[in-house]
UniProtKB/TrEMBL annotation:
<dbReference type="GO" id="GO:0005739">
    <property type="term" value="C:mitochondrion"/>
</dbReference>
<dbReference type="GO" id="GO:0003676">
    <property type="term" value="F:nucleic acid binding"/>
</dbReference>
<dbReference type="InterPro" id="IPR029063">
    <property type="entry name" value="SAM-dependent_MTases_sf"/>
</dbReference>
<protein>
    <submittedName>
        <fullName>S-adenosyl-L-methionine-dependent methyltransferase</fullName>
    </submittedName>
</protein>
<dbReference type="GO" id="GO:0032259">
    <property type="term" value="P:methylation"/>
</dbReference>
<keyword id="KW-0808">Transferase</keyword>
<dbReference type="InterPro" id="IPR050320">
    <property type="entry name" value="N5-glutamine_MTase"/>
</dbReference>
<dbReference type="InterPro" id="IPR002052">
    <property type="entry name" value="DNA_methylase_N6_adenine_CS"/>
</dbReference>
<feature type="region of interest" description="Disordered">
    <location>
        <begin position="253"/>
        <end position="275"/>
    </location>
</feature>
<keyword id="KW-0489">Methyltransferase</keyword>
<dbReference type="GO" id="GO:0008168">
    <property type="term" value="F:methyltransferase activity"/>
</dbReference>
Length: 378
């Protein structure tokens, strides 16, 4: 990262405020420093405290200047029309996730017969941002607002599950962005539970407890799982992310003991070695599991976030049966497959690629961001 010239600090002091100069190393340019200072001041003005406002602004600027992400400093991040509470220990929702969630909601709304109900499972839910925004979009779209909607979010982290529930309450009872589930004319359920998706009991429990809402099929399995390799986390991940966001949310790893097929504990193995043993790279481990879950639950649609074009291609190959643990199931064989870029709604250029002998449509602009599978005959 290039060093900032002293003249920029003088300009920040002179043209904005000494506090903006303090924010510069974290914000990197004058415009961002000015914006962030304004948001910090607005946040302090809008929230009550016994501590004087000037001192509170100073403390928050100091925190941000030390590199703490703005979302942890302010405690929230806008996500579509919603406001998502953020806390250290739970991943901050990203704009790319927001973009495909909105696009996914528009697909669900347009392809839904009016009498049908919708059931959605979000694995690795974190703050609950994906199910909350899907629900909000479906409830505000005339094609889906009157049908029963059932959504279930799952995360291994108790902090994430607690925050997801808080976010549900925050956007319902406090901000009124979502109607309460019991309000007249509205029929939806939204639940969050703490579970390890690698646990052998995960799928049987899911089916047994009938968490899957009534109806012949699950409409959507969605997941933004950890997908960064230990090596990329150490060398290519931004310092602010490495220092302040949870590794559990970013790097597959601790789930290893569930994956040991011969009973031995691979806990001490190198991640690379372990990935090979499971038949994939360490950063792809979650997709192998998500493919197994999809094969068991047979959702109509699957959407998994990925970390770039290379991973998108590997994940398509995996779902089409060309990789992973080689269980021989048919997770993706009858599905239409697409790769979505960062902004999937931006201009269809008719782009296509061939993967594992199949033609795969590529939507939008930007980096490879998600793999989408659809089979309306399920
Ligand atoms: C990349 S974050 C995604 C969070 C959120 N869905 C989003 O898009 O902002 C991945 C999430 O997976 C959760 N996770 C990690 N291992 C898990 C496991 N074995 N079972 C369920 N959730 C897991 C982490 O706690 C984290 O919240």
């Amino acid at each position: 990262m290039p060093r900032l010239p002293p003249s920029l600090f003088w300009r920040a002091r002179r043209e904005i405020s000494p506090l903006a100069a303090q924010l510069l190393p974290a914000c990197r340019d004058l415009e961002s420093a000015a914006n962030e200072l304004r948001w910090i001041r607005e946040h302090v003005q809008d929230t009550k405290s016994a501590i004087p406002n000037t001192l509170r602004v100073w403390k928050l600027v100091d925190k941000r200047a030390r590199g703490v992400p703005l979302q942890y400093v302010l405690g929230t991040q806008p996500f579509g029309d919603l406001e998502i509470k953020c806390r250290p220990g739970v991943l901050i929702p990203r704009p790319e996730t927001e973009a495909y969630t909105l696009y996914l909601a528009s697909i669900l709304s347009h392809s839904q017969p009016p009498t049908h109900s919708l059931s959605i499972l979000d694995l690795c839910t974190g703050t609950g941002c994906i199910p909350l925004l899907l629900l909000h979009s479906l409830l505000t779209n005339p094609s889906t607002r009157d049908i029963p909607i059932h959504i279930h979010g799952v995360d291994i982290s108790p902090h994430a599950v607690a925050l997801a529930r808080e976010n549900q309450a925050h956007n319902t009872a406090v901000l009124h962005h979502l109607p309460p589930p019991s309000s007249s004319g509205v029929r939806y359920t939204l639940d969050f539970t703490q579970q390890d998706i690698f646990s052998p009991a995960f799928v049987p429990n899911f089916l047994l407890q009938d968490l899957r809402p009534k109806g012949p099929a699950l409409d959507l399995l969605v997941s933004n799982p950890p997908y960064i390799s230990p090596r990329d986390f150490a060398t290519a991940t931004a310092r602010a992310v490495r220092n302040y966001e949870p590794r559990l949310a970013l790097v597959p790893g601790h789930q290893r003991h569930h994956l040991s097929s011969d009973g031995s504990s691979p806990e001490n193995e190198e991640d690379e070695e372990f990935g090979q043993r499971y038949g994939c790279r360490p950063e792809d481990i979650f997709y192998t599991r998500l493919r197994e879950v999809a094969a068991a639950l047979r959702p109509r649609r699957v959407l998994v976030e990925v970390g770039g074009w290379e991973q998108a291609q590997r994940v398509v190959g995996l779902f089409l049966g060309g990789g992973g643990s080689g269980s021989g199931d048919d997770a993706g064989g009858n599905y239409e497959v697409e790769i979505w870029r960062d902004e999937p709604a931006a201009g269809d250029r008719g782009e296509k690629v061939e993967i594992a002998g199949r033609e795969v449509a590529v939507r939008g602009v930007g980096k490879g961001r998600a793999v989408y599978l659809c089979n309306d005959d399920v």
